[in-house]
Design brief:
The chain is mainly alpha-helical and about 210 residues long. Helix content is about 40%, strand content about 0%. The chain has helices at about 1-20, 35-40, 55-60, 110-115, 125-135, 140, 150-155, 170-180, 195-210. The chain is flat.
Length: about 210
């Protein structure tokens, strides 16, 4: 029995010593067990090391390197060896589907209702996606059928009944704008949903109003 106690004691000491040796601090910041996960070989757009004597990423990852981690990562093909190019003046970023940023301000609901046209087609796939997104972001307030009977509406009266007479004639542009900026009790969801997702929800909401 004493032998087992001694083995456990020695094992505990060895384990504690192993864990202590992994600690990093001061000048000793420990080891990077997968340095290529921290310092990738491609160009790093948010850093700019122009000193060529620092070596390349491949050289830094080599077992014979000095391990300083600051390697030359500029792009010699770009002006000033920049890795991130400055966009041309007056250009506007589009997303992967060609959508421009939504620029109508919050107080332009009437304008959005008249002018904004849903660019997505009236197909089952779009409406099904809109249904899924509605259940995720809207159902808890407006209810599954849009009748303002979600769990949140029990605590906060005044949630819009999307199937009521006051809302049946609203346009998809109106719905998109309200989702983006919020209205009344409803908070803005523009930061949580992409433009495509907002348009999909608008498509689905119109199906609830038929």
């Amino acid at each position: 029995m004493n032998i087992y106690k001694n083995i456990k004691f020695v094992f505990g000491i060895a384990l504690a010593a192993s864990l202590a040796s992994c600690a990093a601090g001061g000048e000793d910041q420990g080891l990077e067990y997968a340095p290529n996960m921290y310092h990738s070989v491609p160009y790093e757009p948010l850093t700019q090391i122009t000193d060529k004597s620092a070596g390349t990423a491949t050289e830094w990852l080599d077992e014979n390197s000095d391990g300083h981690g600051e390697y030359y990562n500029s792009n010699p093909l770009n002006p000033h060896e920049m890795t991130m190019r400055t966009p041309p003046a007056n250009t506007v970023k589009r997303n992967k589907n060609g959508f421009l940023p939504y620029r109508l301000p919050k107080d332009s609901l009437e304008l959005a209702s008249r002018t904004m046209i849903n660019p997505l087609p009236n197909i089952d796939e779009v409406i099904e996606d809109g249904h899924m997104l509605y259940n995720r972001f809207c159902e808890h307030c407006h209810g599954g059928a849009g009748q303002a009977d979600g769990l949140v509406s029990e605590k906060f009266p005044g949630v819009a009944n999307l199937t009521g007479a006051a809302y049946k004639d609203i346009t998809e542009g109106h719905i998109f704008h309200v989702i983006t900026w919020g209205k009344g009790l409803m908070g803005a969801h523009g930061s949580q949903l992409s433009p495509e997702e907002r348009w999909k929800i608008a498509k689905f909401v119109k199906t609830l109003q038929k």
